[in-house]
DNA sequence: TTGAAAGCGCTACCAC
DNA sequence: GTGGTAGCGCTTTCAA
């Protein structure tokens, strides 16, 4: 709890020199800096957060808005929160958690009190009420996910449409013509903008590649196993040989089990590609080709953009899409010549 | 971004009166308070966080230390983080997330910079390194969970031993003599102090009640289904009619499935009580009697104690155990007369 | 390359 | 019941 004045005295310099030596905002002679750093270390000095905020008008804190819905997928959320917090710490930022039932109230509060330098918004819905708050607020706000009306917002996300195209292309390249898409729960289709876009992209690309795609959601809830199993049976009956999966890990397991039950091998009879999976398709019991949704990528980009905004540097508003990466895991093979 | 001076001017009073009206630390006439509140509302005033910290030496921020281990149970963690953040907000506190790889570094940092008023420690291990930091720090620190050496710390947790005794008593009261305990993963037994204590309590109480208990962990990992199923078969073979479960939801499902596979009904043939479950045993497909671990209870108590410590009021160090609550759901019946 | 000093926007003491 | 004002510990001009 030593103050900057004590450091200055110990180093035999003025307070301002200590401040500049630490912030690097003014050149300081090597010798002076050395003495100051020694004093800082000696006294265990750490600048007072409140004073820094007040004088510098920078808090070095981000707010993380994460409205925990009941039907949220906890592991994915944890992964994003963690990745975001780690990305922030790398840039010397701390993370304040905003989980108000009313997320908007929290955002207003931290913005109005100058508690945070920027707000990072996770789990964005198409008609997210936080969009309005962001527009009305002077505090830089960054969306990880894409609301419907986003032209003047800064949004980060995986380029799901390119990912969908890439997935279809891989299957088509291997000779698959009849393609099936298993999406997330029906609620996921309402909660986010991307499931419908992935579906549209898969269908369109399959047609472009001279094939045909049929798409289904994975049921009312993520764990609607019966619905998933039925979809798989219908796919097989219809001659589908390539499956694109855009759903959580649990659904993949059900698909694999049902294929096995039908006596179908992977990738001998059926090829599978997982798109936008936030789980590790590598450590799965059965590895599957995937175009993963990597929390670190989105979060690091979001943090970088937030820092640009805070510094007053120009940032293009609109979508900042992360190019998909295809991971081969051996679940795609040539279509059976049937 | 209006300041306190603008509020004072708008209300026609001095800034000190505004400050006192808002903090309540000095009586203010009803009429004056009314005018001030109107002005606050009008201007959308929210006191500047940095200024408040600096002048008042209270930050109104808690730190939440949550080292996300790879094997952590995401839903439970989310539940605790959420409950803690909600409990804090109820007391006008914000929550800062500490997820540094080195948890101790984060705690030191926020304590040294005066960023937070108190630190709340979750997911406490028996030999938790954060204990040493807490001892060396002047910042009030509260543990949710019990480290080995805790005499001079303030710790909050469910009274697992009483819960274990209560569970056995319920089974014994219903005539069950042979009792089986299915614990969490083997790692859980190393990571926390309570699994072994629950085990000891169950075994001891079963003996006191003239019965006998056998205990097993649920395998290397939480999802070791094969191990759980085998344990259930062994229990049945050994004449167990009452099962105490101290494990996550997934394990309960496996137990129920295996009992059904063995042709055993619940509660006709086998009675079950879940202890320390953080999931909702009520909305399960099959409801089960339980003595739940309610995150809200622990978190609200932790926040209340933290506020006492911040205010400089005396708080007993050592354990603050939450009395268990038994929820009847019809999974316990009279032991078969066999 | 360095120092002196003016605030940042509050809280809380002292006075009335 | 209310007002004036001295700091809180920094950052950042302005001067040297």
Describe this structure in words.
Two copies of one chain form a homodimer. The first copy, chain A, is α/β, with parallel strands linked by helices. The first copy, chain A, folds into three domains: 4-55, lambda repressor-like DNA-binding domains (434 Repressor (Amino-terminal Domain)); 61-158 and 299-321, Response regulator (Rossmann fold, 3-Layer(aba) Sandwich); 160-292, Response regulator (Rossmann fold), CATH 3.40.50.2300. Helices cover 44% and strands 15% of the residues of chain A. Chain A is built from 13 helices and eleven strands. Chain A has helices at residues 4-11, 15-23, 30-43, 49-56, 74-90, 103-112, 130-136, 160-173, 186-191, 194-208, 225-237, 249-261, 295-310, and strands at 61-65, 94-98, 118-121, 141-144, 154-158, 178-182, 212-216, 242-245, 271-275, 289-291, 318-322. In chain A, the strands form two sheets. Chain A has a six-stranded parallel sheet, sandwiched between helices. A five-stranded parallel sheet of chain A has the order 7-6-8-9-10, with helices on both faces. In chain A, strand 3 (118-121), helix 7 and strand 4 form a beta-alpha-beta unit. Chain A is elongated. At the A-B interface, helix 4, helix 5, strand 2 and helix 6 of A face helix 4, helix 5, strand 2 and helix 6 of B. Strand 2 of chain A pairs antiparallel with strand 2 of chain B, so a sheet runs across the interface. The structure holds a DNA duplex (16 and 16 nucleotides).
């Amino acid at each position: 709890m030593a103050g900057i004045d004590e450091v200055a005295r110990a180093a035999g310099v003025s307070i301002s020199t200590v401040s500049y030596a630490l912030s690097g905002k003014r050149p300081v002679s090597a010798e002076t800096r050395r003495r100051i750093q020694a004093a800082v270390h000696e006294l265990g000095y750490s600048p007072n957060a409140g004073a820094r905020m007040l004088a510098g008008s920078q808090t070095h804190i981000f707010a993380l808005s994460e409205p925990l819905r009941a039907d949220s997928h906890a592991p994915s959320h944890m992964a994003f929160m963690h990745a975001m917090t780690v990305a922030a710490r790398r840039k010397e930022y701390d993370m304040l958690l905003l989980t108000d039932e009313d997320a908007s109230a929290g955002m207003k509060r931290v913005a109005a009190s100058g508690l945070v330098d920027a707000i990072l918004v996770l789990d964005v819905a198409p008609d997210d009420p936080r969009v309005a708050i962001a527009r009305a607020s002077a505090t830089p706000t960054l969306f990880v996910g894409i609301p419907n009306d986003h032209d003047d917002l800064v949004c980060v996300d995986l380029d799901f449409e390119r990912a969908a195209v890439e997935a279809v292309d891989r299957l088509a390249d291997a000779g698959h013509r009849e393609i099936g898409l298993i999406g997330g729960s029906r609620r996921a289709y309402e909660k986010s903008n991307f499931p419908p876009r992935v579906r549209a992209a898969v269908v369109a690309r399959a047609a472009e590649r001279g094939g045909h795609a049929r798409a289904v959601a994975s049921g009312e809830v993520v764990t609607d196993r019966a619905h998933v199993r039925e979809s798989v049976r219908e796919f097989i009956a219809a001659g589908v040989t390539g499956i694109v999966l855009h759903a959580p890990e649990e659904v993949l397991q059900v698909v694999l089990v049902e294929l096995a039950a039908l006596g179908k091998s992977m990738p001998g009879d059926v090829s599978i590609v997982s798109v936008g999976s936030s789980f590790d398709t590598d450590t799965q019991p059965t590895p599957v080709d995937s175009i993963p949704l990597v929390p670190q990528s989105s979060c690091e980009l979001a943090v970088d953009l937030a820092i640009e905004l805070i510094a007053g540097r120009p940032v293009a508003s609109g979508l900042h899409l992360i190019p998909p990466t295809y991971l081969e895991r051996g679940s795609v093979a040539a279509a059976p010549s049937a």
